[in-house]
Automatic annotation (TrEMBL), chains A, B, C, D:
GO terms for biological process: L-methionine salvage; methylation. Zn(2+) binds at residues 141, 223-224. This is Betaine--homocysteine S-methyltransferase 1 isoform X3. PANTHER family: BETAINE--HOMOCYSTEINE S-METHYLTRANSFERASE 1, HCY-BINDING DOMAIN-CONTAINING PROTEIN. Pathway: Amino-acid biosynthesis; L-methionine biosynthesis via de novo pathway; L-methionine from L-homocysteine (BhmT route): step 1/1. Keywords: Metal-binding, Methyltransferase, Transferase, Zinc. Homotetramer. Its cofactor is Zn(2+). Residues 310-329 are annotated as: Disordered. The lineage of its organism: Eukaryota, Metazoa, Chordata, Craniata, Vertebrata. SUPFAM superfamilies: Homocysteine S-methyltransferase (SSF82282). Binds 1 zinc ion per subunit. It comes from Chanos chanos (Milkfish).
Length: 329, 329, 329, 329
């Protein structure tokens, strides 16, 4: 959850009917560049390697993002601008406090279409957060784009049915997750170090941007896995509606048209929308399945096994986990 | 093909029995960051956005690369340090010229295990290039790591059988290509804009580094698709042999050990080598196949259809290609 | 829907707590043997080739089936013992009529867990049929075993919650259908001539028999796709509960133990339950996806396009269908 | 290997340029019907249940087979008409003996395109068997149709290059085996009880019949996995060349045309060749891979581990095999 005023003018834009393109996933992108540690995912890179963080900001901006989220969560006392809550009550309370500062407030949930927050449905959550003062509601992270758009649709329907009004946002993963249960991608066996085969292509992203737009969502961005070229794809798909292309499109022929000069005629034949729009890309992994069975070991929320730990688990504590893990495979 | 002396000391290191870690794929990485156009793949970013290129250099260095290839091919008259030849005769001639400068010379081929250069086998090519003066021979690009290592093995066997001596290098793709024919990944229907499901994980990379090392290859790097974290994986796998970890490992627990603090016990159970070493990652794409049928339309080398064109193909020229492409699917 | 008294004693057995094993799919099995035409699926083979039908009966019996359904649907005026209804009202009425004959009545539905009959849920259907006099309720056809067992579970829960009592039966497909929408396997692009990769193994069948038994279902059989060895697998899995093996088990080592004499040690190592129970069989089809997108062209029930036709569609009528089909792929 | 004279006239037909359709796989088909035990695969059913065997003969005949192989191998002393040899020398000797009886002799090999018999290539084997007197040479079992056709092509090329003349036959598996190594399907982890997802469709069979015919093969049949409808598909594909359809085609609309009366328009749209010819059937198994890694434990021919055993392996002998098997997965 973040006060959306980090950059001025979001509400003005949304109220004017404009499309706002969000940015991508900083921690995942910087992990691959060597500046963030997977597991803790802490943002000390902002202090240790500011030029690397700045470069990524520059790339998302160039790709078409209107909004730059500060790369600071968990980082300091006075800048704690992103916060995760488990209960909708806490979220309501936080929205009320932030609202009192006079800034616009955006409230995002990690939620699937049939997911919920401790028994409260997506629609109900949205209503409560809008009543609490949220200007923008939506979902981010944990699921793939089409799943997230579906969840925001349910929120929008519920909010409108309740006679309320809000703006909607969506910031999904850049990974396909058709096999996730309600906990999302964290329970997939591939999380977080073998998600590569699930990465969305730029064409998947264009489809996502279109579906989000058609669903009435106007703040369209990304979360974990989004690289600059994914954001650019959103901006390119919505260029007709926005009236302009992002800067980075100077290095990108729309729909593969940059292939027009290729020497092989069958590669030149790929220089068109119909080709890339319909492609069903192979994984090149014939010994791998197409779906996974999420873990969860039957443990439900609130279980003591799920308490946040202060220290790394010792080898002695890990051993029984390793055994259990092998047995369930 | 490049004079290997761009950075001093490669031969000294190889002669001393050290492992040299190469860098990754600049054009593909910079395309995703928004600075290179797919299709022409030209390197004007070096002049237009030097900070973006420099940042990527920094990341590969931090990830463990000993060698930084200049990002300049096709860029100027006097710096033409990479060059592609179709016939082994041309390559031989080029090696002789470069050798005459007194610098060490590395000669790489894009070749599969049963591939060849216009009818000359991998082993025969290697012998001729070594005889022409190449200090290092190997393969780069077009195929996945295990395919490339296999090809270098054949080269090494042939060179040794001929009573010659050389160093060996390998710079494969970071994409799985079990379905490629001898032209490599360019003929895959996914090239170049839907290769995501084929991207190798860091664990695939560790396996590759080990197999390359065991095959006697000592210059081990990457080509298209290699991101900094892939290079880091090579350096981590070979840390015991090299005696040190790369700088970027300060942000990486070996074999997933950074997950030791995760709240969910089934995620903590992934903090170990046996888990990631054996993982068979799902693609999350149940409507996609695992392999593709490479294009090629029955056209063989030398066909007029394959001549390099100076200008982009016009829409009128493209139309029959589009039709043909649809018909063959 | 069929009066269950075709063979005497079903209710006696079920009332006594016994497990009744059903037979398999006659029309699909006889189609593969060359005696039934796919499309019309009519049973004239009973008259034209009685020895072929009799042989299949013999095989199912030998495999362990307690019940032989007459192979007569659509066959004559006075023997119309199987009938399909679209509305639960019709089914209720039919159950009442059959009940008045004094015979036991079994009422099956083609229904998925979240499917329904024109808006009436599985649970509600079951309640109404039991109230109408059905002794046995359950589902058959259209979905795979685990989906069907899930649907019967919902029926049982609803019936028991309503304070009623019934026996439960299940006769699923022998094809995996995780990708079906509520219309079942008919809308899969592979129906009916390319379903082979979906055929269940004997081990899948043992898992199904166990899950059905654990769910309290006591009439456990099969529908389209079930061959004699599938029925045998049901009877073998439930041999401990039933106290005996079927005759055909004299030609079957349980859990692959017939492999104990194989010359290759790695094949001998497959002579055990843990091997076959966990196997994840490959399709050997690397160019095929794992799931399909069911057809349906957005047409809903009651649409004039879906009226039963008396005559084969002419080539002129088929042409636009062919075009539409190609366009939607 | 079998004297082809079991049915008179094969050579006459082949010499006259006719196509001969073979039969299918008796032991595998009868195993699924409950009369043969997998593992030993012995043919006592011919004595114990002659009506079941006779019924299957009838079905293959009706499906278009010109030739009925006797179901007698390993069955008696004087009728030993099928025999397997490991060395080409033995096969040569057997051909010579059979030839001396004055009957036509067909010699089949279980061999892949790059397979061989103890170091003798497919082409060389064919030459030696033709020189020894074989009238018909070819391959059967162990590999899928396209692999087998490829092997026979190599044999034909070699025989013709040697200035010899023969007829060619092929009797492949009805299972896809792109992942087999030279030992064929026995080493696949799915052998023999989980091969279902690999079963060829009738359309795969039509493609096979066409490719075999185009390769100059005129005795075209099947081995393990072939059911009557598979044989019918061969006969239907080659009906234009043979001038007639098989009897069982009275129950089969060519290329799915029996679907013309279906109520759903999207199913009617499948009543045509282009639909079924191009279909890429899904497996409905999203947790399964598309290919397997064949077993073999590094054991090569002649190893004592591979000796034929007289008695079933004891539990004590099996235990270390089970452990080894688990460790290699």
């Amino acid at each position: 959850m973040a006060p959306a005023g980090a950059k001025r003018g979001i509400l003005e834009r949304l109220n004017a009917g404009e499309v706002v393109i969000g940015d991508g996933g900083f921690v995942f992108a910087l992990e691959k560049r060597g500046y963030v540690k997977a597991g803790p995912w802490t943002p000390e890179a902002a202090a240790e390697h500011p030029e690397a963080v700045r470069q990524l900001h520059r790339e998302f901006l160039r790709a078409g993002a209107n909004v730059m989220q500060t790369f600071t969560f968990y980082a300091s006392d006075d800048k704690l601008e992103n916060k995760y809550f488990e209960h909708v009550e806490e979220a309501e309370w936080a929205v009320q406090v932030l609202k009192s500062t006079g800034k616009p407030v955006a409230a995002n949930m990690c939620i699937g279409p049939d997911g919920d927050m401790h028994g409260v449905s997506a629609g109900e959550c949205a209503i409560r957060l809008v009543k609490a003062g949220a200007d923008i509601v939506g979902v981010n992270c944990h699921f793939d784009p089409l799943t997230c758009v579906q969840a925001v649709k349910l929120m929008k329907e519920a909010v409108e049915k309740a006679g309320l009004k809000a703006h909607y946002m969506v910031q999904p993963l850049a990974y396909h997750t058709p096999d996730c249960n309600r906990q999302g991608f964290i329970d997939l066996p591939e999380f977080p170090f073998a998600l590569e085969p699930r990465i969305l292509t730029r064409w998947d992203m264009q489809q996502y941007a279109r579906e989000a737009y058609d669903a009435g969502i106007r703040y369209i961005g990304g979360c974990c896995g989004f690289e600059p070229y994914h954001i650019r794809a959103l901006a390119e798909e919505l260029a007709p509606e926005r009236g302009f292309l992002p800067t980075a499109s100077e290095k990108h022929g729309p729909w593969g048209t940059g292939l027009e000069m290729h020497t092989k005629p069958w590669v030149r034949a790929r220089a068109r929308r119909e080709y890339w729009e319909k492609i069903r890309p192979a994984s090149g992994r014939p010994l791998c399945p197409s779906m996974s069975k999420p873990d969860s070991w039957g443990v439900t929320k609130g279980h003591s096994d799920l308490m946040q730990q202060k220290e790394a688990t010792s080898q002695d504590q890990l051993r029984p986990l390793f055994d259990k893990c092998s047995a369930t495979q």
